Amino acid sequence: NSGSSGNNCDFETNVCKVFPELDLQSGWIRRNGQSGMGPPYSDPHGNESAYFLSLSSEMQSSPAALRTNIFLPTDEEHLCQIRFHYWVSQMSVTFMVGLQKHSEDTVTNIWQVSGELRNQWNVNTITINSTEKYEVIFSGMVETQRQGETIAIDDITFSEGC
């Protein structure tokens, strides 16, 4: 499965059911390594023409949030596991994954990385356990407009518990 169906997002097309606002101005842009916009120059599998999402440098210092649809509560047999590839450049960037529960106004930060992993694709899996409906928010922040400062995400897969 190439990840185009259901709850998997490889961003090869603009359609990704989990992210209803993908085509809006969330601050994330869909591009590939040949776009002339600096690193990363390929997707996590080394494909230069395959698409991913990255933060545009104009989004400097204001968090750009990519929100999922509302997920139903998890149960003991089916926790929600989200696996994704991410790229952070080496300097002043922060990439976070947050959880917003139905009854809460605030987003709880459940995972975060900042620019110490030098310019490479990494993979991470987070597990969510929630007794109420929730949304997951991927948010990135670039604090400087130096060339090549960026955050990118690709190949986001959601388990059946999501």
UniProtKB/TrEMBL annotation:
- Organism superkingdom: Eukaryota
GO CC annotation, single: membrane
SMART domains in the record: MAM (SM00137)
- The MAM domain sits at 7-162
Kindly name one Pfam family recorded for this protein.
Answer: MAM
Protein name stated in the entry: MALR1 protein
Gene, per the UniProt record: Malrd1_4
